[in-house]
Amino acid sequence: MTRRKYWQAINDALREELARDERVVLFGEDVGAPGGPFGATKGLFDEFGPVRVRDTPISEAAFTGMAVGSAMAGLRPVVEIMFLDFLPLALDQLANQAAKTCYLSMGHYSVPLTLRTMCGAHLGAGPQHSQNLEAWPASVPGLKVVWGGTPADAKGLLKSAVRDPDPVVVIESAGLWSARGDVPDDPDHVVPLGEAAIRTPGTDVTLACWGGMVPRADAAAAALAEDGISVEVLDLRTLLPMDSARILASVAATGRLVVAQDATGPGSVGSDVIRIVATQGFGSLRTAPELVTPPFAPVPFPPSLAQAYFPQESEIVAAVRRVMSKETVVA
Amino acid sequence: MKLRLYRTMSLIRQFETAASRLMASGELAGFLHLSIGQEAVAAGVCDALDRDDYLTTTHRGHGHCLAKGANVRQMMAELFARAGGYCGGRSGSMHVADPALGILGANAIVGAGVPIALGGAFSAQVLGDARIAVTFFGEGAVAEGVVHESFNIAALSKLPIVFVCENNGYAEMTPVETHLRAASVTEYARPHRMPAESVDGNDVLAVRDAARRAVERARAGEGPTLLECRTYRWHGHFEGDAQGYRNAEEVDQWRTRDPLLVLRAHLDGTGDQLDAIDRACADEVADAIAWARVQPDASPDSLTAHVYRSKEVVA
After folding, report:
1. Pairing of strands B54-56, B133-138
2. Residue A316: enclosing H or E segment and its boundaries?
3. Whether A265 contacts A293, CB under 8 Å
4. Closest listed residue to residue A106, CA positions, set B116, B83, B312
5. Which among A62, A72, A242 has CB closest to B315?
6. Using CA atoms, how far apart are residues A234 and B194, in angstroms rounded to an integer?
7. Closest CA to B84 of B241, B303, B295
8. Closest CB to B118 among A66, A92, A97
9. B306 φ, ψ (degrees, to nearest 5)
């Protein structure tokens, strides 16, 4: 184990995968000599050269398409879309092309594409640099979507994505960029796609979360433990395909569900967690689930308003207390 | 070589004429976009390519795929929605893809195949192999931003790619004067310092010569070329299109410049041979139709097949 910051774990993953497989290439805006807008590709241009680590113009649609074609032609491209908010610029190539190619070619082609992007929430970056749009790719058949909430998971999920034969969207959290954590030293440390993790076991309430929400969920669980409420923190890690089995097993044991997310509610991943439990685990529920979200509005810029906008530890604690105070509504 | 070009054009003509007839008789359903009248572009460009060079094309891509060597039976079976089709009959005619032939795919989104071909060219550059990429698109696609983004990236990185604009004068149902300001699509190459050429797209020999020059430049590491082929679409945007946007005289005038007749004029004294080629192509298409008809239908069992390459993905 080595103590690494979140961004360093990402940098390590990219370096290790570039070294492991010469078909791995990196491209995107500023990823070459500048080392990435936030340092994630630092040093890789010098180490692996301008053929494999390449700056592109600000042309998200074209370079994502180039990634699709080069993946079909035998490379394993990793492209960077600077902010999750810019994903719509590349959405045709991601949703209509990358996600459809295996299906349309009856499996003769696959698209081993990794698309890294950052969610800028909690960066004070304003309404077009802070959106939690994870539900968009997470609703497209043919894509996989992951989001690590710790340095170890950020690294292990990214390495799995690079090695996976299908297109994977890897979301990273600006808010966790400098957070430190223990990361396994094994160069083959991978986190399997599709597996949620129980971060804290508990018996009273299942608290589902992912990505940038994870530290606040952890803090809420710790605060509630002091009052004798045992919260099981379930970090989804992979949003598509979702680990239904682990979600259902956890709720079967606790009987209560709270989902906390930085995305707004309608059409969200949290809605989908509740769909899974309501349709496949209804009998486990002792009371109605809670979905903790921001208001249905764009992300404000001023730090004070952003603080009010994104769900904080206190709101998660309050939601858990509410589901604990209600009793059985299900016959 | 000229007979080979004629054969390719004749096969495309026979394939699409048969498809049109089958659609009219109700045997085929769904969208069908034909390139009858434009055969010289497909035949001329693909003749300049090697078997494993990369190719992407459009919703109107039967000709390009056939010229690259795509399997006639599998293409016809896809139109018939049969399990033996290129996509198991699930996707219709706009999605032919064949790794053995470098066909990275026909595409139902206007302009979307252009950056995918860029990826083929990029991979050839990274891996150091001799392949090049060709992408076909209509002049309507030139209004899409991703096409210009692709020009820029190709020019900056000197990617081995040929951009082939098949200018048939209509973006779906809108004449070119309404959707492009430039007199020629080649004008869009200038800011990228990319060589460009505009040719008579109904003269397969002119197309082939220009394509060879562009392909040689790409293989020599000199980067991309934009090739405009001026041609005309005899049928509507799709089969069933009432074509209220143009008159019959315009279509008739272009029919006199039928690419097959233009080439016949270069092939004095070979009329019997050419007639035999036409018959052989008609037979090949008839065989494909007969084969497609007896293939099993695409089954609901296939609905979730090949959504992912990896196994057991359940959402």
Report:
1. parallel
2. helix A313-325
3. yes
4. B83
5. A242
6. 54
7. B295
8. A66
9. 65, 25
Q: How far is CA B192 from CA A148, B185, B203, in A?
A: 40, 13, 28
Strand partners, A26: A53, A78
Decide the pairing of beta strands B170-171 and B174-175.
antiparallel
Q: Do A102 and B314 touch (CB under 8 A)?
A: no
Return the closest-CA partner of residue A290 out of A200, A173, A209: A209
Locate all alpha helices (DSSP H) within B97-247, ordered by sequence.
Answer: 113-127, 145-157, 176-179, 204-219
Note whether B149 contacts A57, CB cutoff 8 Å: yes
Amino acid found at B266: H
Cβ within 8 Å, pair B56-A101: no
Query: A144 CB near a chain B CB, below 8 Å?
Result: yes
Which residue, B308, B245, B24, is CA-closest to A145?
Answer: B308
| Contact yes or no for A51 and B95 at CB 8 A | no
Residue B299 near chain A (CB below 8 Å): no
Amino acid (one-letter) located at A79: V
Which tokens go with B78? 């896809």
Per DSSP, B169 falls in state: S
Amino acid at B254: W
Q: How far is CA B93 from the centre of its chain?
A: 12
Question: Looking at beta carbons, which residues of chain A come within 8 Å of B122?
Answer: 66, 69-70, 73, 75
| Rounded (10°) CA dihedral B215, B219, B221, B224 | 30
Q: What is the ipTM of this complex?
A: 0.96
- CA A240 to chain B, closest CA, distance in angstroms equals 7
| Cβ–Cβ contact B83 with A under 8 A | no
pTM across the whole model? 0.96
pLDDT, one tens digit per residue, over A213-240 is 999 999 999 999 999 999 999 999 999 9
CB contact under 8 A, A97 and B109: yes
Nearest to A10 by CA among A67, A80, A75: A80
Out of A54, A62, A166, the one facing B309 most closely (by C-beta) is A166
Token couple for B205: 């020999």
Question: Cα angle at B282 between B281 and B286, to 5 degrees?
Answer: 115
Alpha-carbon gap: A227 to the closest alpha carbon of chain B (Å): 37
pLDDT tens figures, A136-163:
999 999 999 999 999 999 999 999 999 9
Which residue, chain included where needed, has tokens 């996707």?
Answer: B91
Question: Chain A residues with CB inside 8 Å of B54's CB?
Answer: 69, 73
